[in-house]
Design brief:
The complex is a heterodimer.
Chain A lengths: L1 E4 L1 H11 L7 H9 L11 E2 L8 E6 L5 E8 L4 E9 L11 H15 L5 E9 L2 E9 L5
Parallel strand pairs in A: 1-5
Antiparallel strand pairs in A: 1-6, 2-3, 3-4, 4-5, 6-7
Chain B lengths: L3 H64 L7 H31 L7 H27 L4 H12 L1
The chains are: A alpha+beta, B mainly alpha.
């Protein structure tokens, strides 16, 4: 399965992991999304009423809990991580607005259409710890 | 100078005194230990009850999430879902009152703090899924931008 990321997810993720309170976020993302069958990821709250390409909000545990928004394309065996936020702590929030959910959806559409740069995510091992590596994909590099 | 008889009296009085003191202390110690054990049992029962409520809420949140994976819902289904949302809001309000009572009376005293805080996180999850159900079934379907994005994605 291929895992991609929008600019919004990458920015938010990189901001959060710099904060000591959210140091478990990277591990939570890796454990939930990597080395999985795409069908196993069809759980959580489905926001768009699609079976083939569900837009999902998933609760991840970790310290205080995180919310991850992602878009699965079953036929292409890939997913796009769209946004993440913690529930608690200095960067925590209860929920995002309907307008934000719609905007994130629109941004993933631009990525799927290859109209905007996005990232392919791979795992790399650094000092025996698995880390996410974001590789920029542009129209030229695709 | 004390006579032998008065010595015996004095020793006997001391003996009675120490016997009484020792016996009473042992009795009181046992009854204090029982009181502490009763208090600890009550705290444990409370922790189990709070954990059990938390698990019930977590399970219910999972059930509500599964509703979002249903397809081809007609007007009758949407009316039922609207009722589920209203009843879930009532449930949430009751849980919040219970949490406030626990927080006011116990957290401040350091009793079952972790269990009560975890319970609150589950109550917050319930509130969140209620908002999400409204969003999925009643708000997002009415947002033209959202529907247009869905339409385009479905034909790519």
């Amino acid at each position: 399965m291929f895992i991609y990321s929008t600019e919004e997810f990458k920015n938010e993720f990189e901001k959060l992991i710099k904060n000591n309170s959210y140091r478990d976020l990277e591990k939570e993302i890796i454990e939930y999304f990597f080395d999985k069958n795409i069908q196993d990821l069809c759980s959580g709250t489905r926001l768009n009423n699609s079976n083939d390409a569900p837009y999902i909000k998933k609760r991840l545990n970790g310290k205080g809990g995180y919310r991850v928004y992602f878009y699965l394309i079953l036929k292409d065996d890939c997913l796009y991580l769209m946004f993440v936020h913690p529930k608690t702590g200095s960067e925590g929030s209860d929920n995002i607005s309907n307008e934000s959910k719609a905007l994130l959806y629109k941004k993933v559409l631009e990525c799927v259409k290859r109209n905007t740069p996005f990232y392919k995510i791979e795992l790399q091992v650094f000092e025996n710890i698995q880390k996410l590596k974001f590789i920029l994909i542009t129209q030229e590099s695709d | 100078m004390l006579t032998c008889e008065s010595n015996i009296d004095k020793i006997s009085q001391t003996f009675e005194k120490v016997r009484s003191l020792s016996y009473n202390e042992k009795r009181n110690f046992i009854s204090t230990e029982e009181s502490i054990n009763t208090l600890l049992d009550t705290i444990n029962e409370l922790k189990q009850s709070v954990n059990s409520k938390k698990q019930t809420i977590d399970s219910f949140v999972g059930i509500l999430e599964q509703i979002t994976w249903l397809n081809d819902l007609d007007e009758t289904c949407l009316i039922k879902i609207n009722e589920i949302i209203s009843l879930s809001r009532d449930f949430h309000a009751t849980l919040i009152r219970y949490y406030n009572s626990l927080a006011e009376n116990l957290i401040a005293k350091g009793i079952a703090r972790r269990e009560i805080q975890n319970f609150k996180l589950s109550i917050d999850d319930l509130k969140e899924i209620i908002e999400d159900l409204e969003s999925v079934f009643f708000y997002l379907p009415k947002m033209p931008d959202f529907q247009e994005t869905s339409r385009i994605l479905s034909i790519i």
